[in-house]
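Bench log, entry 3. Co-assembly request; chain sequences pasted below exactly as received.
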Amino acid sequence: MANVFVVTSGKGGVGKTTISANIGCALATAGKKVCLIDADIGLKNLDIALGLENRVVHTILDVTNGKVGAQEALVRHKQLKGLYLLAASQIATKEMISPEDMKKVINSLYKNFDYIIIDSPAGIERGFRNAIAGAEKAIVVTTPELPAITDADRVIGLLENHGMDESNILLIINRFKKNMVKKGDMLTQEDIKENLAIDILGILPDSEAIIVATNRGVPVILGDDNHSAIARVIENISSRLQGEDIPIDRDLIQPQSGGFVDFFKRIFKRER
Amino acid sequence: MFFGLFRKRKKKAKKEGSRNDAKDRLNSIVSSRRRSVPIQDIVPQEVLDGSEVDVKNQIRHYVSEKYNVKEENVKVQFEEHNGYVVIITNVVFH
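Structure output for the full assembly:
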């Protein structure tokens, strides 16, 4: 029986898709069977983040139209045998799928996976209602800026209104800049937690590795930067989702460099 | 000009981080926003038809449980506006 999570935010561009892809990969790396569902119909991106855009044959619309079964429409990840994607359609609109359709799709996949992660579109309209319809738990993503946090607050209210318990709504703070917090120019994780009043699942640092990984279509935890600070936090998040008790403060610890020798190695490794 | 340089430096030193501004603004936005509360128990018609006190007590009890405050800290008032009954609930948290 799967744990069904929806990754949502309210505001667009905060990193929902990247986080969905990376958490999915981290869980699959840990040996779990994971299904990622792209609920951002019309503006799909999850297949691109995973580097699977050329492998998609059927989309979620084909499943809801009864052309194929949900299992048949899944695309398996190239490297991770336990990771599957149910892609969204580019040409369809969000109104072509109803929350009931979404529930049916999830029910048909429920028994075959350990985790089902639904990537929600931005906004609080039909696409959002579709994405949360079959979810048991929610991961709300925000960046430490006011517009994103206030939108996250609105989304938390809507999730509670939908019947989701506060304890099943978890927060990920993305693009956290430790140096700006030190200077007193950015809200701290405590400030955000105090206002949103939900538990923090992880704090992801601002990272260039994410851009490189998205360019390559290889999620950061599977690429060359898999020892970076952000990859380590994603692993922490994956472990927390599996029930491990890892303190949130550990997300803010920078990975230690290899010292003097490593410093020179990095200099000579630099491309000119 | 020489003194002007010092004046600018003084101004810079006084400049505070923007975190406090953000914190104050966030507090005012989030705290003033009405968060929707899911209603699982609907008060039966018979109770509503009964005395006003019963309805007020039910609301007081629900709110005190939901927000973990004493029942005395919840004040319920009924007002009629344009044919609608408006229930005003004030909660004192501190």
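Residues 146-161 of chain A form the longest helix (16 residues). Chain A touches chain B at residues 145-146, 149-150, 153-154, 156-158, 160-163, 181, 183-188, 191, 195-196 (CB under 8 Å).
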